[in-house]
Write a structure and sequence with these properties.
The protein has 10 helices and 23 strands. The protein has about 450 residues and is α/β, with parallel strands linked by helices. It folds into 3 domains: about 40 residues; about 210 residues, Rossmann fold (3-Layer(aba) Sandwich), CATH 3.40.50; about 180 residues, 2-Layer Sandwich (Ribosomal Protein S5, domain 2). Strands 8-7-9-10-6-11-12-13-14 form a 9-stranded mixed beta sheet, sandwiched between helices. Strand 15 and strand 16 form a beta hairpin. The radius of gyration is 27 Å and the shape is globular. The protein starts with 6 loop residues before the first strand and ends with a helix.
């Protein structure tokens, strides 16, 4: 018996090659080629290659100028979970497709089960399709979460055609597919979770959502590197991509929007895992601030922006004597930027750490990607080196350039108001972020250069 011909398909881009290679020739990804059986080619002639080209394929459609199209905001339905609504941009959108990914056991299914129950109680028919668990397992989780008398419709199925038929028969408003990697179509011979199956099933579900107005929420697996598994085109198909972040050993979870056609990107929702499921955290800044009764050396609070939300985060630094090879280690901050800031400190502020170990940490496990943390990092390093704490109620933010200048941070007024609301009283900020009107209870020191900021801090001792 002749062996079936196989091809190798890239998990990252979907490209194929007749033989296995360590590196994908299309996108350059390493170890991403998986053996699969090619789909049977259609026997029909490709009409697009005919001499007449596109002529006769379809009638030309009328075109409309943008100014003649009526623009209106999309209608949203609150999910009943405030932090999830914040990330989604206000609620679920009719006909929208949401992809949510995260590490195993981080709480994806728990959050979606809570959201489906809240939508069902608000009067929207819902359907929860599970391909990884049995109906009894999902029911057991709902009892454990304290969801009594839930009327969420449950379907344990992985075949795409049966799922689409059930959706057509039951007419739900919101459908959850848990997960897209377990779903398969009979039209393809490849196994569930393959690039072709994930792409085809997601395309059919997206087409169904746009055609019927049903909101579809897809749960996606992640790779060991933390990226969503499957072809990259999966993220391009959907309207919203959400990532679950956080350590499974920590009770706190962050849900971040990295793509949202109906809202702000990089918006975050903060949750705490409890015995009754995920609960929204109304004051997330409290998570990222330490509970010192008195100020300690090496600690400086900064205000970062996560989407539209200002968050107060404590930056901690430890400067200690080193051996012949000093270490520079950062957790939650870019290590290359830390090396740059140490060079700026030495050159423009006269603070030398060349023979010292420098460790910097963002409290609470949060990752800070914006350069507005530069000034707080430098002040915390200086505080640790001098052995003197910064004043109580002190915070700072601002980007620092290689020439020693302090550059403004976006939405500086919102940052200042958030800190003042939480009881902070002293601030060192870029001069361009200084408010025109005084903020009650807040003393603001506006600086243009790093050495000015250091002089201000020394004057506060």
């Amino acid at each position: 018996m002749a062996k079936d011909k196989t091809i190798y398909t890239c998990n990252a881009c979907g490209g194929s090659t007749p033989r296995w290679l360590g590196k994908c020739p299309n996108c350059g990804a390493w170890n991403s080629l998986i053996e699969s059986v090619p789909e049977a080619a259609s026997g029909g002639k490709n009409r697009l290659s005919a001499p007449q080209g596109y002529a006769g394929l379809a009638n030309a459609q009328p075109v409309t100028p943008l100014s003649a199209i009526e623009a209106q905001d999309v209608a949203r339905t609150p999910s009943g979970i405030e932090e999830l609504d914040r990330v989604l941009g206000g609620g679920v959108v009719e006909g929208g497709v949401v992809l949510i990914g995260g590490d195993p056991g981080i709480g994806k299914s728990t959050l979606l089960l809570q959201a489906m129950d809240a939508l069902q109680r608000a009067g929207l028919p819902t359907l929860y399709v599970t391909g990884e668990e049995s109906g009894a397992q999902v029911a057991l989780r709902s009892r454990r979460l304290g969801i009594d008398g839930s009327q969420v419709n449950l379907l344990a199925e992985i075949q795409l055609e049966k799922i689409l038929a059930t959706v057509e028969a039951t007419q739900p408003a919101v459908v959850v597919i848990d997960s897209i990697q377990t779903t398969y179509s009979d039209q393809l011979t490849s196994a569930p979770g393959s690039v072709a199956q994930v792409r085809e099933c997601a395309a059919h579900l997206t087409r169904m959502a746009k055609g019927t107005g049903v909101t579809v929420i897809l749960v996606g697996h992640v790779t060991k590197e933390g990226a969503l598994a499957g072809p990259r085109v999966l993220e391009h198909m959907v309207d919203t991509v959400l990532y679950f972040e956080g350590d499974t050993h920590s009770p706190h979870r962050l849900v971040r929007a990295i793509k949202n056609r109906f809202g702000a990107v990089n918006e975050i929702g903060v949750f705490a895992m409890t015995e009754k499921g995920l609960k929204g955290v109304s004051n997330p800044s409290a998570i990222f601030l330490s509970q010192h009764t008195e100020p300690v050396p090496g600690s400086c609070v900064m205000v970062t922006l996560e989407g539209t939300r200002p968050l107060l985060v404590e930056i901690q630094a430890l400067v200690d004597s080193a051996g012949p090879a000093p270490r520079r280690l950062s957790v939650g901050l870019d290590k290359d930027r830390l090396a740059m800031l140490l060079a700026v400190l030495n050159r423009h502020a006269g603070v030398a750490c060349a023979d010292q170990d420098v460790f910097v940490n963002a409290v609470g496990g949060v990752r800070i990607n914006e350069p507005a943390a530069d000034l707080a990092v430098m002040l915390s390093i200086t505080s640790s080196l001098r052995g003197k704490p910064l004043p109580k109620g002190f915070f700072a933010f601002g980007e620092v350039g290689l020439a020693g200048e302090v550059r403004p941070a976006p939405r500086g007024q919102d940052r200042l108001k958030e800190a003042a609301k939480l009881g902070f009283t002293v601030a060192v900020v870029p001069k361009a972020n200084a408010p025109k009107k005084a903020i009650a209870g807040l003393t603001i020191h506006a600086v243009e250069r790093v050495d000015e900021a250091m002089q201000v801090v020394r004057g506060l001792d």
